[in-house]
């Protein structure tokens, strides 16, 4: 190696340690910059904030999409807990897209294991949610494990019902 030929063994070790420390510092700076990076929209234009309050947001992250009728209309730009331990999400919606004040926001996923996003179901009211306003109706994220538990529970209940029905029929035939 070139390092062994030019530098002594001790100097080469100091250089290796120096490179490792420099790379570590660069990695920390990069991660810090990425963590503090403000969420920006891919499409240019003006956006206005709307709040949505959920009991649970499993798998939904800041930066995830907000969709209306299958079209991207904004992003989740902030998430925090309120005093009642509910998740308060700040959604930025494109200007010009007015959302009726009786609309609902649901956390859904694209496919069984797909990414989560917020789907807005528009209401029929003629009044719109104002800038900085809040959704009146929200639906929490469905956790796949809970869904599977429900399906298994329904299956067990049907099996036990069928088993009881079969044994009752056998007893009646005797």
Number of strands: 7
Shape call: flat
What structural class is derived from the secondary structure elements?
alpha/beta
The low-confidence parts are none
Helix coverage percent: 25-40%
Structure characterization notes:
The chain has helices at 2-6, 9-35, 144-173, and strands spanning 47-54, 65-68, 71-81, 87-94, 104-109, 116-121, 137-139. The protein has 174 residues and is an alpha/beta fold. A hairpin with a 5-residue loop joins β3 and β4. The protein is flat, with a radius of gyration of 27 Å. The N and C termini lie far apart (91 Å).
Please give a quick description of this structure.
With 174 residues, this protein is α/β, with parallel strands linked by helices. The chain is built from 3 helices and 7 strands; from the N terminus they run H-H-E-E-E-E-E-E-E-H.
Write the layout of secondary structure elements.
Layout: H1 2-6, H2 9-35, E1 47-54, E2 65-68, E3 71-81, E4 87-94, E5 104-109, E6 116-121, E7 137-139, H3 144-173
Parallel strand pairs: 2-6, 5-7
Antiparallel strand pairs: 1-4, 2-3, 3-4, 5-6
For the structure shown, list the relevant keywords:
174 residues, 7-stranded mixed sheet, alpha/beta
């Amino acid at each position: 190696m070139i390092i062994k030929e030019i530098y002594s063994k001790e100097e080469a070790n100091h250089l290796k340690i120096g490179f490792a420390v420099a790379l570590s510092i660069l990695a920390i700076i990069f991660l810090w910059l990425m963590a503090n990076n403000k969420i920006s929209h891919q499409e240019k234009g003006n956006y206005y904030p709307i709040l949505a309050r959920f009991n649970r947001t499993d798998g939904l992250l800041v930066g995830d999409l907000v969709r209306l009728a299958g079209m991207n209309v904004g992003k989740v730009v902030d998430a925090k807990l309120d005093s009642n331990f509910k998740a308060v999400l700040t959604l930025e919606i494109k200007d010009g897209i007015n959302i009726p004040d009786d609309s609902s926001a649901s956390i859904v996923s694209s496919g069984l294991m797909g990414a989560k996003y917020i789907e807005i179901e528009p209401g029929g009211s003629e009044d719109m949610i104002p800038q900085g306003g809040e959704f009146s109706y929200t639906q929490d994220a469905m956790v796949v494990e809970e869904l599977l538990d429900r399906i298994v529970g329904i299956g067990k209940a049907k099996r036990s019902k069928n088993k009881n029905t079969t044994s009752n029929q056998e007893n009646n035939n005797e």
